Amino acid sequence: FLSYPEFTSLEYVDWEFAFHSNWGYEGDYAGPGLPALIMLNYLSYYGNDNMTSVPEFTNLTTIRQWLNMYNNQHLTSFPSFPALTHIQYGGINGYNCTSMTSVGTFLPSVVRIGGDVNFQNCALDQESIDAILVKLASLDGSGGTTSYDSRTITLNNGTNAYPSETGLAAISTLEGRGCTVYYNTP
Questions:
Q1: Closest C-alpha to 18, from 67, 91, 85
Q2: Backbone CA torsion sign across 98, 23, 93, 102
Q3: Helices (H), strands (E): how many in the chain?
Q4: pLDDT tens digits, 95-154
């Protein structure tokens, strides 16, 4: 397969949208887009050897469990999910995307992440490492409106950059809340 249909009208998925183990095909392809999707339990794009991009999820506001985007060897960037506000109980798995150099504007609208965040063994640049750390540190639980409830953030190994002073300050904040942060050092 070199292309997949857009699911242009799909708004709700009662459990999981899974796009995985598409490997061995020649040429690059983009994963299918879900432009109208608003809510689901699990969003999973993993084990897709030649997938180079994932269309933006412009209307997705809620993931109840996990956002899984891992083991995609040629995926170069993490979608921004501009409307996403809640990863209610789970977290983010973005590991083993060895060509992923950027997370762009990292989850600009998110106010809650309930589980671990893992971008181990990627190729993220320093700006992206910092963006992840700063976003998580901003979810501080004040007033019950924002929260990052997990204890583990994994950003090490692969060719991931190491954090700048901005990222290190965010790590200090997160560790002060009891989080464990794994990251590369110079």
A1: 67
A2: positive
A3: 2, 14
A4: 999 999 999 999 999 999 999 999 999 999 999 999 999 999 999 766 567 898 888 999
Angle subtended by helix axes 165-176 and 126-138, to nearest 10 = 30
Residue with the two structure tokens 């979810």: 139
pLDDT in tens, 27-58: 667 777 788 899 999 999 999 888 888 887 89
Nearest to 59, CA basis, from 44, 38, 79, 39: 38
Residue type, 61: T
On whether the CB atoms of residues 171 and 183 are closer than 8 A, the answer is yes
d(CA 95, CA 87): 17
User: Model pTM?
Assistant: 0.92
Distance from C-alpha of 149 to C-alpha of 28, rounded to nearest angstrom: 37
